[in-house]
Write a structure and sequence with these properties.
It is a single chain. The protein is of the alpha/beta class. It has two domains: about 1-135, 3-Layer(aba) Sandwich (Rossmann fold); about 145-205, Winged helix-like DNA-binding domain superfamily/Winged helix DNA-binding domain (Arc Repressor Mutant, subunit A). About 55% of the residues lie in helices and about 10% in strands. It has ten helices and five strands; from the N terminus they run βαβαβαβαβαααααα. Strands 2-1-3-4-5 form a five-stranded parallel sheet, with helices on both faces. β4, α4 and β5 form a beta-alpha-beta unit. The longest helix has 15 residues, at about 175-190. The protein starts with a strand and ends in a 5-residue tail after the last helix.
């Protein structure tokens, strides 16, 4: 088995290897610190599964997931994140992730999750599975940020992190006008007036680091 670990913290990658090597005795591991390294390794080598952090410097794990699925549509990607399930998991699963784990639960659930996604299944925790099933039974009103597209949601998080329009435009390789248009859509969809309201909303719901 070949497992690619994508996280910008060396200690996290080392910890994941220790957990997985104890269970998958013949596994070999690759590492990537950022989006560019991850995509290069996926392009040039074959992997059985990718374990992907979604919060990295530069291009985010959201965009890395999208690009991996374009390069290797059948390659399972297991998202491992510090963010709570109720804020991010459904969006990542819709984006093509084979599973979602919080870093807090990784020690207990990671090996089982990898076994499941390699076998072609999808992994969610029991608590998330119950929550998702409840959506089928009751009409749950969407939270305002759930109305946003993936790109709009990414930009919301960047605004809430204190980044200016020009900085966001440079990081995403888009024009300032395009970012301003996205910001206007975000404000309209969420019925907000300014960046301060966006920031307060994001902090209250743990949408930013």
């Amino acid at each position: 088995m070949k497992i690619l670990l994508v996280d910008d913290h060396a200690l996290v990658r080392q910890g994941l290897k220790l957990i997985l090597a104890d269970h998958f005795k013949n596994a070999s591991f690759g590492e990537a610190r950022n989006a560019n390294e991850a995509l290069a390794r996926v392009t040039n080598q074959k992997w059985d599964v990718v374990v992907l952090d979604i919060t990295m410097p530069g291009r985010s794990g959201w965009e890395v997931l999208r690009d991996i699925k374009k390069l290797r549509p059948k390659l399972p990607v297991l998202v491992l994140s510090m963010h709570p399930e109720d804020q991010f998991a459904v969006r990542m699963l819709k984006g093509g992730a084979a599973g979602y784990l919080t870093k807090e639960s990784a020690g207990d659930e990671l090996t089982g999750a990898i076994n499941k996604v390699i076998a072609g299944g999808r992994y969610v925790s029991p608590s998330l599975a119950e929550r998702m099933a409840s959506y089928l039974d009751i009409d749950v009103q969407k939270a305002p940020h759930e109305r946003l597209s993936d790109r709009e949601f990414l930009i919301l998080r960047m605004i809430a992190s204190g980044k200016q329009v020009g900085q966001i435009a440079r990081e995403l390789s888009l024009s300032v006008q395009t970012i301003s248009t996205y910001r206007a859509r975000i404000l309209e969809k969420m019925r907000m007036k300014n960046n301060a309201e966006i920031t307060r909303y994001a902090i209250e719901r743990n949408l930013v680091d």
